[in-house]
Design goal:
Blueprint (H helix, E strand, L loop, with lengths): L1 H19 L5 H12 L3 H21 L11 E8 L4 E2 L4 E7 L2 E7 L10 E7 L13 H7 L2 E5 L3 E6 L5 H19 L4 H10 L7 H9 L10 H14 L5 H18 L4 H18 L6 H15 L2 H5 L1 H21 L9 H25 L6 H8 L4
Parallel strand pairs: 4-6
Antiparallel strand pairs: 1-3, 1-5, 2-3, 3-4, 5-7
Length: 384
């Protein structure tokens, strides 16, 4: 197990080094030097993991577009390859074109759905730079393999796509959101949509800031708790099936739910951990949450190395889960274990455990630390 941890850790270091520094091959030569000078089997495993991390970033970045006619009026054809991101006054649409992925900003009056083929005209632009940004917008887009923007294109034609598995899921989500909007006023409607579907599109800016200041942003984010609840409900509903069949159907349920709520990095991490736990039970093995967390992070980084470096949601989700796994047992020994105080004890311990590991990220990205977060979570968590 130590060898596995060394390999995974060195792979992550390779990804970080190759992503954050232009001198990507300098660390490789350093490792080669030490590998020759201090040759040991475990060191060779570290070296191999590091090289694999660097190469994965190289392959990912080789997909950056070439020969793009920047700042020119062009017409192109592209297919919508992800869920349409509808905001209050516009919608974001990602299309696959001859130059790679292009992010279009369309009017709400443009009826576009997943899978449609668009013909549009406009100017291709690079992501803007902001002077005071800690987290570059260009890095966020690169995380999704998007390097090109078209802010105000003219939509010339739309070819409707036939129904597909993904389009049916996105259509179902749209109908659920519309139903929520018809049942509740704002901002309650957006809050309920956040609880059920992880959607924060309609939350007012002042409410979003209030959640951040009080450390309650996680309540409208899909996490491992949602996956656990989903599995519990599916196991109950499918109680007439045997144990292994319930695991199979629950696994399918997790996959559909991950797609439904947008498959963000935090959701993928929670979904992968849920699947690894279920299939560990299917194989008759005891679940190891820490290794489930590690494997899910490794799989996600192999698929997209920028997840590790530029996805704040993944970093906070990973850090919070790691904090709970490492520090919750330690803190539990400091507080009396009395049943009548259980509703107070568990939310408080979970909040404190997660805050230990997420605080550095909160200070780095948002420049704030919430002293009232433990109390706020203590009051809110049982209600949620």
């Amino acid at each position: 197990m130590i060898s596995l941890l060394l390999f995974v850790a060195s792979f992550f270091v390779g990804v970080l080094g190759a992503s954050l520094t232009p001198l990507q091959f300098l660390p490789i030569f350093c490792f080669l030097f030490f590998a020759v000078f201090f040759w040991k089997p475990k060191f060779s495993l570290i070296f191999f993991g590091f090289i694999l991390g660097v190469l994965r970033v190289e392959v990912f970045e080789s997909a950056e577009p070439q020969n793009v006619p920047w700042e020119q009026l062009v017409s192109f054809e592209g297919k919508v390859i992800s869920e349409v991101d509808r905001r209050i006054d516009h919608q974001k649409v990602t299309v696959e074109t001859e130059w790679g992925r292009v992010l279009l900003t369309l009017s709400l009056y443009d009826e576009v759905e997943f899978g449609d083929v668009l013909i549009a005209k406009g100017q291709l632009e690079t992501p803007p730079e902001f002077e005071d940004e800690v987290y570059r917008y260009a890095d966020y887009l690169a995380l999704h393999r998007v390097w090109i923007l078209m802010p105000s294109p003219q939509l010339l034609a739309v070819q409707r796509a036939p129904p597909s598995f993904f389009s049916m899921i996105f259509d179902f989500k749209k109908r659920v959101e519309a139903r929520i909007q018809s049942l509740y006023f704002e901002p309650e409607a957006s809050f309920v949509a956040g609880l059920l579907l992880g959607s924060r599109k309609g939350l007012p800016e002042e409410l979003t800031l209030a959640f951040q200041r009080t450390g309650l942003s996680h309540i409208v984010a899909i996490s491992g708790y949602n996956i656990s609840l989903l599995v519990a409900v599916l196991f109950y509903v499918l109680s007439f099936l045997n144990f292994k069949k319930r695991i199979l159907f629950s696994s399918v349920g997790i996959l559909i739910f991950v797609i439904l709520v947008g498959a963000s990095a935090a959701v993928l991490r929670a979904g992968l951990m849920g699947l690894l736990t279920l299939w560990g039970l299917y194989a008759g093995r005891k679940s190891q949450a820490l290794f489930g967390l590690l494997w899910s992070a490794l799989i996600m980084t192999l698929i997209n190395p920028y997840t590790l470096v530029y996805d704040i949601g993944f970093q906070l989700s990973f850090a919070a889960t790691l904090g709970i796994l490492l520090f919750h047992p330690m803190l539990a020994g400091l507080f009396p274990d009395r049943k009548k105080f259980l509703w107070v004890r568990e939310p408080l311990l979970l909040t404190l455990s997660a805050q230990i590991t997420t605080t550095p990220f909160m200070l780095l990205y948002f420049g704030r630390f919430s002293l009232i977060s433990p109390l706020a979570n203590l009051l809110v968590a049982p209600l949620i």
